[in-house]
Design a protein that fits this description.
This protein is α/β, with parallel strands linked by helices and 354 residues long. It has 2 domains: 174 residues, Rossmann fold (3-Layer(aba) Sandwich); 150 residues, no CATH class. The protein has 17 helices and 5 strands. It has a 5-stranded parallel beta sheet with strand order 2-3-4-1-5, with helices on both faces. The longest helix has 18 residues. It is globular and about 60 Å long. It starts with 24 loop residues before the first helix and ends in a 5-residue tail after the last helix. Pfam families: nSTAND2 (PF20702). It comes from Candidatus Venteria ishoeyi. This is Novel STAND NTPase 2 domain-containing protein.
Length: 354
Amino acid sequence: MSLEQHLSFHPERPCLHSGEHCGRDLLVQHAFDRLATDDVQSFAVIGFSRSGKTSFIHHLCQPEILTQYLGNRAEEFIFVTLDAGQIKLDGEAAFFQHFYAELKAKTGMEGLHGSNDFRQINAWLNTHNKRLVCVFDDFNLIVSHPAFRVQFYENLRAWFYNENRVGCILTSPVQLLQLSMSKELAGSPFFNIFNTYVLAPLQLTEATLLLESRLPKVLQIRSRDIFTLIEEVGTMPYLLQRAGAQWVTQYQKQGDTTFSHALEAVYQACLPYYEALYASLKTRQLQLLTGLLQGQTQNQDNDLVARGIIGEENAQITLHQFERFLRERLGLRRKNSGILHRIWQRLFQTGKNR
């Protein structure tokens, strides 16, 4: 992306087109490696809240990206998206109503109502030499809804698995193994057909480009301040967008181009996200950290001990351990980050007195 193509920060919404998307090119390549096979392969995109899942799948569906990775075959692919977080889903009928409305808009097919119509879709795809990719964003919301029967998942699985021209991309903040243990699925092997890609933090060069492409020119040239911003907040796109937007706002208010003058505003803007992340991480790691915080002794998790996230004899969490815990999730690069230290004090020190 050329820096002349100036963009704006948009932390409260996903990327709408490929010009706004930045990084994760290797993951994009892996995705198209699965989609471009003779038998369209299904996969899941996993990442916690605001990690960029919706932006990523928007990027995959753009015509110019399809052409870049699929060449002349790009015209074969039809992407139909259902965002479970943006529509009212009160059962299977509503699911198919929304899904088939999108399919009709892309293909003109009519008279579709439920899973019994999959054969009609298959016939249309064969006749027109097309491939269908069903994109289910926030699929975890469907899994947690009691109105969806096990047979619903079995029908979808059979369609994706048996029909070469049909595949699925789903997103979730929850790992597929955890979703598969939901009582609503009752042991269904639905997720067995999905490969999994986890959205990791951006690389340093990707994070730098994201900021430079959105900052005004007077801030673009402040390479040291850009690097400091990245060291402070990490390399997850949402935090970069949030911090960059605050830097621009503070510059417009004060006329000072240094990032240090925006640090307090950045901290206040990013804190709710860190708090939400802390509250949502119901993994074995967080349970162990919480147990240690409460003075409990839990030394049986050898993996955490080996990675240095906790110490074998520690009765409480240290700032260093907290940093190690979040680094892999947020792309934090520098030890003793000022923002990290303040978040540590707020989330953990105050937590002892609750």
